[in-house]
Design a protein that fits this description.
- This protein is 22% helix and 34% strand.
- It is an alpha+beta fold.
Length: 677
């Protein structure tokens, strides 16, 4: 039989165990570490020491629990180190449990675990700060009315200066009040398997290479054995043991040679400690804790959930959980000028635009000023992220400025502005969101655990508020029955633009501006002239009610007054007729100028111009007809002459009929345009 011996292997083979069935390497590793997926068992063939030379075989059916010691780990354990009360509380917390409070008589257990020279044991009771005599359970601060223990003779006598309680002697059942700075044994209630991990900085070259490769960090799992041994032992052979003679902890290699030592600490060698390299006396930091791969280990050895790492709150005593909190890890060769790694890959981008306010419509420059907010979301699978939160992860500006960030051109602005050069870009809000919370890996650097997420599992979102002046080719021909359709034309300025697919979403808070009713009518995204182009269309629909009151109604009223002069004033009052219509003309001229100045300028006639011209011409025609009547009457005094009859007929019949036809036609055309728009 051939045996493979590891390089630098030392010692003798004392026993060989073989399974009668072939097992995978992974299964055998789990078996030796006492943590296979199932409670496995099987035939183990063994060669006892006295029969090795003859290879006499014996066999037995052995179960996992026959040689694994998990059952010894759980339950009540007295730490074999005398500690101050609150240091003992911390030691229990370092093992992810609480101090045990003796609420019933358990002295048989105490005798079994403590050495014969045992002198004192913390009970877990503290004094109530109000009564200074009654007891409270420290773990949950709950007052108790009865206890199996009684105060010793003359106790309690220390007030709040002696706020903790202890039992003395292996057979003691009476309580003494003592200072919490007193040293005694403490009991922890272990409820889950204790796995001690050691994370350290790169070991200095002074450590012999065959112990630990100095280019790697120490990262081993230790199981704690309680009782007299007082050892943290690893599956790979290293262990941490307390040397009672020198009162120091030793980090021992699998070859039983001390590697590091730790002097004069209050409790367990857990947390970030300054160890000393044996032989060179050089310092090295090791963070030894009971935290699993999804937890962060503080300097004092306590464990935090991974979401407490870099959450803007100091959860560790010294705030080390908020150190080195950069969220983005740039890979080597990362190019922030391109959105994707290769020319064949595709980037899907969600672009959401929210139209907030129409601030101005400038009819002179044919522009409108829009205030809007955009949110762009995409995934950059080239990146790696660390220490993200489940809810919101705001990215610092100096960090996101290193990434590829989409730059958009507002194409139909006067200077075709870029968002990257906008002053509002400085106030960009960039967030990261995990798509799968459970998909992460953990790794140690600088003595602390960091949690990493692949770029494909993280969504980047960037939110901005902008204000731009957009150009809109207004058409005023139908004014005031007009509608104006304007666009926001936004172009993505990016290399490999054709490899980006934009999913566009548009929303609007626009309701009205001046006399316009506003509406988001259409939006689209696609490739135009080889570039990703976003079009957002809004419609400005005019409300002509104000013009009805200040323009149409006054001019119509004046026109009716003019017409009534033809029916009720005879030709003999020529001067009165001329005065009334002249006054109307001047009033209409003034109103016409006012309306003209308030209308948008154009080189073509608008519908409002048609109305104003018609109402302005009406009194002029009346003056012209009455002037002819007056001249005719001076030449021919006959009232019933053919010329006089024709003029009166035109003034009293033809003129109002024509104006009525104009009035009906104008409003039919105008309202049809308004409703169709």
């Amino acid at each position: 039989m051939d045996f493979y011996v590891m390089p630098r292997g030392q010692g003798r083979i004392s026993d060989v165990n073989l399974f009668d069935k072939m097992k995978t390497d992974e299964w055998m590793m789990d078996w030796t570490k006492c943590n296979p997926d199932d409670n496995s068992h099987g035939e183990i063939i063994s060669w006892p020491q006295d029969e090795v030379e003859d290879f006499v075989q014996t066999s037995n059916d052995t179960r996992l629990n026959d040689f694994c010691e998990d059952s010894e780990v759980l339950g009540l354990h007295i730490l074999p180190i005398k500690l101050q009360f609150y240091d003992g509380v911390l030691a229990c917390k370092q093992l992810k449990t609480e101090i045990f409070t003796y609420t019933d008589t358990v002295m048989t257990f105490v005798k079994r675990q403590l050495p014969e020279k045992f002198d004192s044991l913390w009970t877990g009771f503290v004094k109530d700060p109000v009564t200074e005599e009654s007891l409270a359970i420290y773990a949950d601060r709950r007052n108790i009315s009865e206890t199996p223990f009684t105060w010793g003779m003359g106790e309690p006598n220390g007030g709040l200066n002696e706020a903790c309680s202890e039992i003395r002697g292996p057979n003691g059942t009476s309580l003494n009040d003592v200072s919490c700075l007193y040293r005694a044994y403490i009991t922890c209630d272990i409820k889950e398997k204790v796995l001690i991990k050691s994370q350290g900085q790169s070991i200095v070259k002074a450590v012999k290479e065959h112990y630990i490769d100095y280019t790697y960090t120490v990262h081993e799992e230790f199981r704690m054995y309680y009782g007299k041994r007082n050892v943290f032992k690893s599956d790979s052979g290293e262990y941490i043991i307390r040397d009672h003679a020198t009162d120091k902890w030793l980090y021992v290699s699998k070859f039983d040679e001390p590697m590091f030592s730790l002097y004069s600490i209050k409790g367990l060698p857990i947390g970030l400690q300054n160890w000393i390299v044996v032989g060179t006396e050089e310092p090295v930091k090791l963070n030894i804790n009971n935290c699993d791969g999804s937890m962060f280990g503080c300097d004092n050895g306590l464990c935090l959930h991974r979401y407490d790492r870099c959450n803007q709150e100091k959860n560790c005593e010294n705030g080390e959980d908020e150190s080195l909190c950069s969220q983005i890890v740039l890979p080597k060769g990362y190019n922030s000028l391109v959105p994707v790694a290769s020319k064949t890959s595709t980037l899907k981008m969600k672009y959401s635009i929210y139209l907030k306010n129409l601030l101005n419509v400038d009819v002179v420059t044919s522009t409108f000023t829009m205030q809007f907010r955009t949110t762009v979301q995409w995934i950059d699978d080239r990146l790696v992220y660390k220490n993200l939160q489940v809810d919101e992860n705001l990215v610092r500006r100096q960090d996101w400025q290193q990434l590829w960030i989409p730059d958009f051109i507002m194409k139909n602005t006067e200077d075709t502005a870029h968002t990257s050069t906008n002053d509002d870009e400085y106030h960009s809000i960039v967030r990261l969101a995990m798509l799968n919370e459970s998909s992460f890996t953990s790794a140690y650097s600088n003595n602390y655990n960091d949690f990493y997420y692949e770029g494909s599992n993280v969504l980047i979102s960037k939110t901005n508020s902008y204000t731009y002046h957009f150009i809109c080719p207004y058409d005023w021909a139908d004014y005031p029955f007009d509608r104006q359709v304007c666009q926001l034309e936004i172009v993505l300025a990016a290399a490999r633009s054709k490899q980006i697919e934009i999913d566009l979403h548009a929303f609007s808070n626009l309701t009205a501006y001046s006399t316009f009713a506003l509406k988001l009518t259409n939006y689209s995204a696609g490739i135009t002239d080889g570039k990703n182009t976003i079009l957002v269309e809004i419609m400005m629909h005019r409300d002509f009610t104000p013009l009805m009151l200040n323009t149409y109604l006054p001019t119509f009223t004046l026109t009716v007054i003019n017409q009534l002069t033809n029916y009720f004033i005879g030709y003999e009052l020529f001067e009165g007729i001329i005065a009334v219509n002249s006054t109307t003309l001047m009033t209409l001229a003034s109103l016409f100028i006012s309306v003209f100045n308030s209308m948008p300028e154009s080189t073509y006639i608008k519908m409002m111009d048609v109305w104003m011209i018609a109402t302005f011409m009406y009194p002029f025609v009346i003056i012209f007809i009455h002037t002819l009547i007056h001249i005719t009457n001076r030449k021919d005094a006959k009232e019933d002459g053919p010329m006089m009859k024709a003029l009166w007929f035109v003034g009293r019949k033809v003129l109002p009929i024509c104006f009525t036809l104009f009035l009906v036609t104008y409003w039919i055309v105008g309202l049809s345009k308004w409703y169709s728009n």
